[in-house]
Amino acid sequence: MFAFALFPSLIAQRERTGERFFFRADSQAVRQFERYGPARPAATGLLPVGDYAAVAERTVRRLENDGYPFAAVSVSPLTEPDSDGVVSTLTVEAGPLVRYDSVIVKGSLKLRPRFLQAFLNWRPRRKYMERSACRIAQKMSALPYAEITREPGVEFVGDKAFLYLFADKRKVNRFDGYLGLVPVSETTGRVMFTGEVNLMLQNVFKIGETLELRWQAPEKYSQYLFAHADFPYWFGTPFGLSGHFVLDKKDTSYLNMNYRVALTYSFAGSNSLQLYFDYTTSSILRPQLVTATEGDTTSYDYRKPMYGLRLNYSRLDNGIQPRSGVRLWADIAAGSRRILPNTAVDADVYAGLVMRTTHYRLQGEITGFVPIAKRWGWVAGASGGMLLGNQQIYNDLFRIGGTRTLQGFDEMSLYASSYLTAMTEFRFWFAKLSYINVFFNAAWYERKLSGSYYYDYPFGFGLGATFHTKAGNFYISYALGQQRNSPVSFKTGKIHFGLDVRF
Q: E-strand spans in 450-486?
């Protein structure tokens, strides 16, 4: 746009001798330079010839991002320099001021206009921004339920800009589950079934919401239930509301319930920052069996309110089965925990306990996807967590292990006050949505409790496969794990399989 034959041979020769030549900016150009340009013309309205390319480009770009998409910089034909060294006159034409009007979707994707306008930052009557328009495709790719069929386009009608999106609805509503066959005893060879059911609904109400329900039976007499709802861009603003409920029943020992409500600020697509309030209650299920001799596995009734901040960031090429990109989250929270004496428990159990303490919680996770070749891919990630504060108790610890955190171990079977995990995985894609994978994961964790300390370096490895079918994605994996006093044994291998149905 800005390249042109600027220097006739005569002017070029004179410049080499030290003479300087200028453009004379007209009154319109001077006004635009004072507002948008990187350099202000001299008091005489002169601009050095050598600065033309940089000044013109930056002036046009700033005009394009302030409502003037048709801005242009031009010069009159070059002449012999006058007494001031002026060889031409420079003019800036801003063109008409253009404002956003509306978003028009072509395809089967259904989204309410208020959500789209807030998500894309395309609000009626706002000045047109070329920079924002160029990022529309990238923003739309962050929506897992949108399948882009053509590049977005902008139509200018008079002083209005209409955004056209070409997108179809993608099948992302998810229902899946698996059955796990887990050995109970190496001696008897007895096994037990574990299971998990996941339901995720997205954009059901056409406002970009996410509804999730997850149930697990990690071990005998244990239940885990997670329910989550997220409504972003509330009333067309960057703010949204989300919340979850967690029920965690550990055999006949205790029952934990967690409630969270969060105010979410969304930015740059699906990335967000959350400010939340978190409240946890824990109840002993068989208090008559709790004694002071249980040591570090003693559980207590308690209440713990916490305030926290969470960052979510994702930049993936595909929200369902990514092959390149990164995603991460980080969480920090602070609050106080109050232990509640149970009248059915011997008073000696509470001897020496501080009933109210201040606690901090740090957690985070990062996962990267790297394409190696046409059919090969590498996945690597790490996660960690830390509980800070005096007097940690058994039923208030992190629980790790299983398909989500450490494959080769029972679901949520390892109790930790601090942990760090790392994983690496290689995938071979033999079809568009089907692959075979091998993986290795390892962890360090510690358990600091009153009067006791334990740490270990468990690791697990295995292989699996995911097959895309008309009914959904069928997956199966086999994993082995090793931890302290429990070497690798094929008798304790973990087999998981299930069907991921999307609709």
A: 452-456, 459-468, 473-482
Handedness of CA 366, 369, 372, 377 (dihedral sign): positive
- Alpha-carbon distance values, 312 to 189, 269, 334 (Å): 44, 11, 19
Compute the Cα dihedral for 146, 149, 152, 153 and give only its sign.
negative
Residue intervals of the chain classified under CATH 3.10.20.310 are: 99-169
Is 422 in a helix, a strand, or coil?
strand
Query: What band does 16 get if pLDDT is binned at 50, 70 and 90?
Result: low
Query: In this structure, are residues 241 and 274 in contact, taking their beta carbons and an 8 Å threshold?
Result: no
Q: Which of 431, 425, 500 is nearest to 462 (CA)?
A: 425
CA dist., res. 342 & res. 355, Å (int): 12
d(CA 113, CA 110): 9
Which residue type is seen at 172? V
How are beta strands 99-106 and 160-169 bridged, if at all?
parallel
Partners of residue 271 on adjacent β-strands: 267
Query: Strand, coil or helix: what is 348?
Result: helix
C-beta separation of 117 from 103 below 8 A: yes
CB of 250 closer than 8 Å to CB of 268:
no
| CATH assignment, 174-502 | 2.40.160.50
- Least Cα distance to 113 among 170, 64, 172, 162 occurs for 162
Token reading at 360: 């901090």
Kindly report, as residue ranges, where domains of CATH 2.40.160.50 are found in the chain. 174-502
CATH top-level class for 9-93?
A: alpha beta
Is the domain defined by 99-169 classed in CATH 1.10.3720.10? Answer: no
Distance CA 369, CA 312 (A): 17
Q: Tokens 């709790």 sit at which residue? A: 290
pLDDT (tens digit per residue) in 457-503? 999 999 999 998 877 788 899 999 999 888 887 777 888 877 777 77
Q: Output the average pLDDT for the chain.
A: 86
What is the greatest pairwise CA distance in the chain? 105
Task: Kindly report, residue by residue over 425-445, the tens digit of the pLDDT.
Answer: 999 999 888 999 999 999 999
| Contact by Cβ (8 Å): 354, 390 | yes
**How do beta strands 494-502 and 174-183 pair?**
antiparallel
Rounded distance, CA 130 to CA 60, Å? 11
Q: What is the DSSP string of 267-336?
A: ETTTEEEEEEEEEEEEEES-GGG--GGGGGG----EEEEEEEEEEEEEEES-SSS-SSEEEEEEEEEEEE
